[in-house]
Design a protein that fits this description.
Layout (H helix, E strand, L loop, with lengths): L17 E4 L13 E4 L16 E2 L18 H13 L6 E5 L4 H12 L3 E6 L2 H10 L4 E4 L5 H8 L4 E6 L3 H11 E9 L18 H6 L3 E4 L9 H14 L6 E5 L4 H10 L5 E5 L5
Parallel strand pairs: 4-5, 4-7, 5-6, 7-8, 8-9, 10-11
Antiparallel strand pairs: 1-2, 2-3
Helix pairs in contact: 1-2, 1-7
């Protein structure tokens, strides 16, 4: 299966989701002024031929910014919701999440805490780790640039990790499988940001025997496969956000021309929570 080839490439509009305000309308479902979601890509204006590619925001915003429909109550929030479900985690189990201060990881960890798990996050700065433990109540957060996964988990999960939500892939994934998963552990692969830019795919990871011996379950997650359940999930999550039981941050870039900077920033760890670009022509 081709993963990125159909979405990105030379002479293609860069892929992406946006929250758009309708400025001209010939469709009663979407009057002028309405906010809609669309996979419109990196464009300042978007023309929908028949409205079938537009989705209304499926929950009441109240005092929330429309940007939440792209973050905590959008695709990243949904990814964490269905990701936790796939992990089949039980209260008291040990959960590791990397990319933990990002849009998906920060929510996955909080949902796991609400379920009674012991949550260990890995992120790329002390500031991010402080946010995870102090505000989001993760049990542990480690700056992976300062401490190895092995040393961190010797401290925080000496008996092994029951569930692992992987946003990073590569060496981190390899270390988890070969050294840290508990027997009957479950892994959800959500992303592999440490390898997205690799020119060569590493060959033959030495993981088979550990998967076999520890009887691990490894699942891939594609959030779009759950689209029929999106509205149910969002209506469950929205009250948690409004009550403050689920906290979130957004890193805001002002101006459409900041799209490349915001995108590259994801690979440098410049965002905390969801990276949002607000177009200056957004009415
Ligand atoms: N499967 C799905 O349906 C689905 C849906 C949404 C997103 N995703 C994937 O899930 C992952 C998280 O998405 P997100 O929206 O939450 O992104 P994000 O975490 O908001 O941003 C990416 C973060 O990854 C970390 N990172 C970047 N390079 C890294 C590296 N080499 N090693 C370790 N960490 C690195 C950075 O934080 P640090 O400072 O911690 O390094 C960065 O802030 C991504 O891989 C994304 O592609 C998958």
């Amino acid at each position: 299966m081709r993963i990125h080839g159909d979405l990105v490439g030379e002479n293609k509009t860069m892929f992406g989701e946006a929250c758009l305000k309708v400025i001209k309308a010939r469709n009663d479902k979407f009057p002028v002024g309405a906010l809609v979601l669309a996979l419109s890509g990196w464009q300042t204006h978007y023309l929908s031929k028949d409205g079938k590619d537009l989705r209304p925001i499926p929950f009441d915003l109240d005092t929330l910014s429309p940007s939440v429909s792209l973050g905590v109550l959008g695709m990243p929030g949904l990814t964490s919701y269905f990701g936790l479900r796939l992990l089949e985690a039980k209260a008291g189990e040990v959960c590791v999440v990397n990319g933990a201060a990002g849009a998906v990881g920060s929510l996955l960890g909080q949902l796991a805490k609400l379920k009674g798990l012991i949550v260990i996050g890995f992120a790329g700065s002390d500031e991010k780790c402080h946010w995870l433990t102090k505000d989001l109540k993760f049990d542990y957060a480690f700056n992976y640039k300062k401490i190895s996964v092995d040393d961190a988990l010797k401290q925080a999960a000496p008996k092994g990790v029951d569930v692992f939500f992987d946003n990073v892939g590569g060496q981190f994934f390899h270390d988890m499988i070969t050294k840290h998963m508990a027997r009957f552990g479950r892994i959800v692969i959500c992303g592999a940001i440490s390898t997205y830019n690799d020119a060569e795919i590493p060959k033959f990871p030495q993981t088979h025997l550990q998967i076999l011996a520890n009887e691990l379950t490894i699942r891939g997650l594609m959030v779009m496969s759950y689209d029929k359940e999106f509205d149910t999930a969002l209506n469950e999550m929205a009250p948690l956000i409004k009550k403050g039981d689920l906290k979130f941050k957004e890193t805001l870039y002002e101006g459409f021309e900041k799209m490349p900077e915001a995108f590259v920033g994801l690979f440098k760890g410049e965002n905390i929570g969801k990276a949002i670009v607000k177009a200056s022509n957004y009415p």
